[in-house]
Specification:
The protein folds into two domains: 3-90, Up-down Bundle (Four Helix Bundle (Hemerythrin (Met), subunit A)); 91-121. 71% of the residues lie in helices and 0% in strands. The chain is built from six helices and no strands. With 121 residues, the chain is mainly α.
Length: 121
């Protein structure tokens, strides 16, 4: 049994120190996932906080019978938590299709900026 799995099992049995250790050893996952969501109107610090919730949920719900590495399980949990926050949290409720269009427009704009070497007009 690998180190992380042993700590996760201890954590799920109520060992707070083991939970904290797994969290600390995997915080890099949060940063790598959060970077993908920069530029969507939310501060990086907030993305990291939301991603931390996803990582903690991953620690709490990971099951060795999934037969995947913990990081493979944790990354989608972190991304899902951030996506849920971006989708559901806001003063105004905006439809999912409108948000999806916004993401497409943002991506197209970035692509054009790289191709043209300037801002598209």
């Amino acid at each position: 049994m690998d180190h992380t799995l042993a700590l996760i099992i201890k954590s799920q049995q109520g060992d707070k120190k083991a939970r904290d250790t797994v969290f600390e050893e995997n915080t890099g996952l949060i940063y790598s996932v959060a970077k993908r969501f920069v530029g969507r109107g939310v501060e990086m610090e907030d993305l990291i906080q939301i991603g931390s919730i996803g990582l903690l949920k991953a620690v709490d719900h990971f099951n060795a019978s999934f037969e995947v590495k913990f990081s493979t399980y944790a990354v989608p949990m972190i991304a899902g938590e951030i996506k849920r926050y971006l989708r559901d949290d806001g003063i105004l409720k905006v439809s999912r299709s409108l948000k999806e269009n916004c993401v497409k427009i943002y991506s197209a704009r970035e692509k054009l900026e790289k191709e043209l070497g300037r801002e598209p007009v």
